[in-house]
């Protein structure tokens, strides 16, 4: 008899009906989410979510390989949090998406059609009077005039009001008009008063103008500012001027080219990229910022490597006393949070009150304008970034130095070589090759070092006479942030184009880093 047949069967967890119930509930919730996204007009996003949910149900609801069940969460996370934002940003770079072009054409038209204007000539002065636990609304034609109309009792506290309130004369309402409530009480019920629509008794029953709340103490008829046309255009009610949607610019425009706000989002093709490289007024600052970004990242790597490697070699000298103390002190800049160090240096470099200028003034009688002069501002940024970055390189080089065979230095000593010969002939060649991928990564990191620029100089000083404000110490990522979120216009489409360009450059650096890493592994 097979002994395995006598072993107890493992627990199967939830019963089958419970698993089907949970699966059905999850499927309904997923479909509801997909339909909600599609209802907002995001068809591609809805299709992506539907594909993602369907894949999850297939992988976890059928007898597929268990390997897919472990891989799916990571792949789904990468698609949701890496691929989707990247693709969304890239497609924004081909649109005119900005603070003035946020809506779709339909929503922009609906916004215009909902605009109303009140007729001041027909406005009536309103007063609010207490009537027990309820209130009465009294309308006068002039401030000092007699009450013309009175409403029935209004339950303003409970907001239980009919859609249209028919006004009556004081005699018909059987209400003795007394002292009106003060401004404070009127403002307390302002939200409910805005919902009122009043019908005057002497106005035609069908199609008569309704009075709406247009001020703290006034009701007046509202007229639509725009009327819709069958071709999708709108006409200004007061003047009869027609505004048609221009799907090249993303605005409703009249024959003279005058535009209405808000605009709507349209595809503009390669226009944003053409602005980067084709517009002379825009290309100048952009090219300067791009060159400074590359120079900043490159010099940072050079300076931090020189300082960090030099200190690592010095601390590796066995004859140096108190090496542990020196190593601890030199590591401190890496232990302090970067944003704190940056803010401290911002105070140290202050032209009037900073300690650095106080020392320079005492020694040489000068007070450099670190934040006003472009060259000094860039020099200050490199000094601060070198201070922040050298401990990392120092630690890496200290570890790499331990891997160099001591026999090489012993043979060099027998040949009569000095310290500089040992460094350039033995130490540097042994360190640079394994260090190179890390240097490429450091270059890519500093290429997008937004925190340093934002906290230290905020991109200042600015370029003069530019279409879009740009700073001489801005790097591409801070310049993109400035275009997208800070300066007037908030051109998200242009910022997305620059972000896509940054991604391409960083991706190229990543590929180079991978190739260098593989080359180092193959050489071992």
UniProtKB/TrEMBL annotation:
Membrane-topology annotation of the record: Multi-pass membrane protein
One Pfam family cited in the UniProt record for this chain: MalF_P2
Domain of life per record: Bacteria
Residue intervals of the ABC transmembrane type-1 domain: 290-513
One Gene Ontology molecular-function label: ABC-type maltose transporter activity
Spans traversing the lipid bilayer: 20-38, 44-63, 70-88, 289-317, 329-349, 380-401, 435-456, 492-514
Compartments reported by the entry: Cell inner membrane; Cell membrane
The keyword Transmembrane helix appears for this protein: yes
Cellular component GO terms held in the UniProt record: maltose transport complex
GO term, biological process aspect, one: maltodextrin transmembrane transport
Keywords linked to the UniProt accession: Cell inner membrane, Cell membrane, Membrane, Sugar transport, Transmembrane, Transmembrane helix, Transport
NCBIfam families the record matches: PRK10999.1
Subunit structure: The complex is composed of two ATP-binding proteins (MalK), two transmembrane proteins (MalG and MalF) and a solute-binding protein (MalE).
Function: Part of the ABC transporter complex MalEFGK involved in maltose/maltodextrin import. Probably responsible for the translocation of the substrate across the membrane.
Similarity comment: Belongs to the binding-protein-dependent transport system permease family. MalFG subfamily.
Stated name of the protein: Maltose/maltodextrin transport system permease protein
Organism taxonomic ancestry: Bacteria, Pseudomonadati, Pseudomonadota, Betaproteobacteria, Burkholderiales
